[in-house]
UniProtKB/TrEMBL annotation:
PANTHER family: 4-AMINOBENZOATE SYNTHASE, PQQC-LIKE PROTEIN. The keyword Oxidoreductase applies. It comes from Candidatus Scalindua rubra. This is PQQ biosynthesis protein C. The gene is pqqC. The lineage of its organism: Bacteria, Pseudomonadati, Planctomycetota, Candidatus Brocadiia, Candidatus Brocadiales. Signal peptide: none annotated. SUPFAM superfamilies: Heme oxygenase-like. GO terms for molecular function: oxidoreductase activity. Keywords: Oxidoreductase.
C-alpha cells in the first residue's frame, strides 16, 4: 500500500498527517451533531430550567465516567508518548492542574463540578439520588459506546476521543453554556462548561500530537476518520433523544 506521502490527493495535493488531522477536525465541526437543532435551541434561549434538568441528569450519566473512557484509551495505546497527554488529561479530570501547581482535589473533580451545575437546576446530588437517575435509551447507548472504547483498536479510538470528542467541546459547550445562562444560571453554576471550553482546546491539541505518529498511512487515516464520525453519529442520536424527551 502507498503511504499517504506518496499518494496524491484530490487536485494532485499530497495530504500529510497534519493536513489530514486539520481537515478531519474541520469535518467534525461540520458534522450534524455540532449543528443540531437541540444545540441551536440552547443558543436561542429556548431551553428552560426543566429541559436543562433533563439534559443535566442524562449528560451526567455520560460525563461522570469520562475518566473511564480516557483510561480505556490509555489501556489500549501501545506508544508511551501517545499515552502521555491522556494521563495528564486524567489528572485534570480529578481536579489537578500542573500549570497552576495544583494537585488532585475531590472538590474539583469534573464530576464534582458537574454536580454543582446539577444542583443549580434542582437536582439532589446525594449518591443515592444520582445512582437512581433513569437515563433515556439514547443516553444508555451513548454511555455504552464510550465504555466499549476498550474493545476498539487504538487508532479508531483515538479518532473517537480526539477529533470526535475533545476537539468539538469548545463549540458544543458554548451553545449549552449560553443557553443555561439565558435560563438564569450564574457563571459559577455553568463552570463545568466554561472550564471545558478552555481546557479541551489543550486536550484536543494533546490528542492530536498523540495520534500524529500513526496518522501517516491512508489505512490509519481511514480508521481515525471512522472513529470520529461514528462517535459523532452516536452524539446526533443522543441529541435527537434529548430533544424528544424534553418536548422541545
Ligand atoms: Fe472533563
Amino acid at each position: 500500500m502507498l503511504s499517504v506521502a506518496e499518494k496524491p490527493m484530490g487536485g494532485g495535493k499530497i495530504m500529510t498527517a497534519e493536513e489530514f488531522v486539520d481537515q478531519l477536525q474541520q469535518d467534525c465541526l461540520d458534522h450534524p451533531a455540532l449543528n443540531h437543532s437541540y444545540l441551536k435551541k440552547f443558543e436561542a434561549g429556548k431551553v428552560d430550567k426543566k429541559a436543562i434538568r433533563i439534559f443535566g441528569e442524562n449528560y451526567y450519566c455520560f460525563s461522570r465516567y469520562f475518566s473511564r473512557y480516557l483510561a480505556a484509551l490509555v489501556a489500549i495505546t501501545p506508544f508511551e508518548a501517545s499515552r502521555a497527554p491522556l494521563i495528564k488529561n486524567l489528572h485534570e479530570e480529578y481536579g489537578g492542574r500542573q500549570e497552576e501547581n495544583r494537585d488532585m482535589d475531590p472538590e474539583l473533580t469534573h464530576p464534582a463540578i458537574f454536580r454543582r451545575f446539577l444542583r443549580s437546576v434542582g437536582v439532589d446530588t446525594s449518591q443515592e439520588t444520582l445512582d437512581a437517575i433513569k437515563p433515556i435509551p439514547e443516553t444508555k447507548l451513548f454511555v455504552d459506546k464510550y465504555l466499549n472504547i476498550r474493545f476498539l483498536d487504538y487508532i479508531t479510538a483515538f479518532g473517537a476521543l480526539g477529533p470526535g470528542t475533545e476537539y468539538i467541546v469548545p463549540k458544543m459547550y458554548t451553545y449549552i453554556r449560553e443557553g443555561c445562562k439565558k435560563a438564569g444560571l450564574s457563571d459559577d453554576e455553568v463552570l463545568f462548561f466554561t472550564a471545558h471550553i478552555e481546557l479541551d482546546v489543550e486536550h484536543a491539541e494533546g490528542l492530536k500530537e498523540g495520534l500524529i505518529p500513526f496518522a501517516q498511512t491512508e489505512e490509519n487515516q481511514e480508521k481515525l476518520r471512522f472513529g470520529a464520525m461514528d462517535f459523532l453519529d452516536a452524539r446526533t442520536v443522543l441529541w435527537d433523544g434529548l430533544e424528544r424527551a424534553s418536548g422541545l
